[in-house]
Amino acid sequence: MQYLIPFIPVLAVIVALVVLGLLVRGAVKLIWQVAEPNEALIISGFTRGNVGTAEGMDFKIVTGTGAFVIPGLQTVRALSLTLNETELQVNCVTSQGIQVVVQGVVIFKIGDSTPFIANAARRFLGQQAKMESQVYNVFEGHLRSIIGSMTMEEIIRERDKLASQVRSASGIEMEKLGLVVDSLQIKDLEDPTGYIQNLAKPHIAQVQMEARIAEATRNREAAEKEAEAASLIADAQSISAIRQSAAAANAQTAQANAAQAGPLADATARQQVVVQETEVAKLEADREEQKLQTSVRKPADAKAYAQRTEAEAQKAADISAAEARAKKTELEAQANATAAAAMAGATRVTGEAEAAATKARGEAAASAIKAKALAEADGIKARAEALGTNQEAVISQQLAENMPAIVAAAAEPFAHVGQLTVLNGGEGVNNMVGGILAQVGNYLPALTDALRESNASRTAKSSPQQVPQRPEGEAHAQ
């Protein structure tokens, strides 16, 4: 406590200042009044010569700002400027005599201008709750009046027009009350007599009919779409099944091909081996043919040619010798005839000379024929000897000489084909050529037998005959 004694004067000053501040604040609040944004201050009493007062009124209106108020000389009261709402439910009769209950709502407020605030202050200051009943009464009368001049159809179709007419008709009265209507809405129309319902029945029936038609149409279209969808589903399922079957078939084909790959490869290998063996056989046949030509045919041809040449040379020599002897004999006969003619007489010598010449010519012709026959006999004998010693070689030679004609005859049916398609590429060509060669091979035994018989028959027909010797007497007789 002894420590606080020096601070007691300071604390007393602080308390005095706080009390003074509170007193000043209360005094200022009493003197200076501020209006809220949604209210107007009505100041009555001493107004300093009506400055800021309404026309014809001894009070001051303050909105949105503040004003000094002299306590005891002036009174301040607040007038709310917020919105107010009144529900309407008015029994009316149309121009057709049809009873209708109109339900609506009116949203109103005190006007913002000074005249509206002044009118509302004089009528509703301190009793603003009465504004709703006053507004209801105003709109009730105008609604009945306006609806009485309209038909039910107009009321239904032109509610905005009805609301506009009611607002226009009540505008002057609402202005006198200092009120402004922000909104008037007709919410509903009650029809105790059922006129609206009956009025709507034809339209309802039409709408129901159109609705049923539309529903039926939609159902039909939906059924068609469902049928189309089902058809598409069936098609898709069918296509899927076909593809699955094709895939299964392809798989089975692949399996079968895989299973046949080994035997097919073996068969292909064997076929290639056969083709190679056939080629080797052809080469061996060609080699044998070359050997045959080298070892048999050419020597035989050379021997036969030599024999023919010797025979022809001998023939020519014999013919020349015979001709020479005949010439010599003729000359000798002529000489003898000349000599004899000289000795014995021309007639006898001439006859003998002619006889001798004729005999010499006969002998020369006979010698020439004999030499020719002997040469031909030697050629036939050489051919017969060649056929006897190596007949197969001669036949092989003849087959080799005629082989192009034989192969051409075997392939002759293909000459009449306009366009030939060979499958399997080179293998197909090899198969076709092998078939032709096989066909030629089938004919070779028959051709060999035919050639053998032909050669035997030709040899038999061409065997040398003994040339008959003409008797000298016959030649002489000639």
From TrEMBL:
One of its GO terms (molecular function) is protease binding. This is Flotillin. CDD domains: SPFH_flotillin. Pfam families: Band_7, Flot. The keyword Coiled coil applies. Residues 30-203 form the Band domain. It is found in: Membrane. Gene3D superfamilies: Band 7 domain. Its main location: membrane. Residues 206-233 form a coiled coil. Keywords: Coiled coil, Membrane, Transmembrane, Transmembrane helix. The keyword Zinc does not apply. Residues 453-478 are annotated as: Disordered. The chain crosses the membrane at residues 6-24. SMART domains: PHB.
